[in-house]
From TrEMBL:
It comes from Machaerirhynchus nigripectus. SUPFAM superfamilies: alpha/beta-Hydrolases. It holds the Pfam family Abhydrolase_11. Gene3D superfamilies: alpha/beta hydrolase (3.40.50.1820). This is TEX30 protein. It comes from the Eukaryota. Residues 27-209 form the KANL3/Tex30 alpha/beta hydrolase-like domain. The lineage of its organism: Eukaryota, Metazoa, Chordata, Craniata, Vertebrata.
Amino acid sequence: VKVKIPFGNKYLDAIFSVPEKKPTYGVILTHGAGGDMNFPHLVSLAAYLASHGVLCLRFTCKGLNVAYRTKAFKTVVEYLKLSDDYKLSGVFLAGRSMGSRAAASVVCQLSQDGDDGFIQGLVCLSYPLHRPKLQSKLRDEDLLLIRCPVLFVSGSADEMCEKQLLEGVVSKMKAPKKIHWIDKANHGMAVKGRTTDDVMEEINAQVFSWLRENVQLEHK
């Protein structure tokens, strides 16, 4: 289902992937610095989640400024929260690369505004912890403030997220967290000798099982 979400004096293009049964939880998903919501990994993940009963809303927000992207993401969260079509108990925010930085920022801002528990967790796909070859400057400030569960899915050969550095940051995080390493994958999740579909299947299954663990944990 295609929708246009009002954002300032513009609209954000978005697409709902709707499960057959009435969903209780949703995932809001956005892309990295390049591309848009039709980036193959996002389309694949949205279809997979919807087929497993999770509502997925993916949106496009062009713009290379993280603050701008964060503002857009926040608008989408509010839109879904107030939606009459889907009465959700909670959502997970998810993004790829720069989109995951924006998602982390939103989680921080909303928790500082006194989050009412609508946001259940954060999924970071290829989180860009540092610029290529600039390992001294880490983009970890938001991560260290987050309290809700966080899943990182990163390639072990990601030039923007050195394995040891992410593990170091994660060890300092107060939130419940998990890292799933895609062996030998680069920032774009490409792995020599594996098809894109094969890698995406691994990512999708990981994301879904983590969501399920977290939503179940809450009901225990």
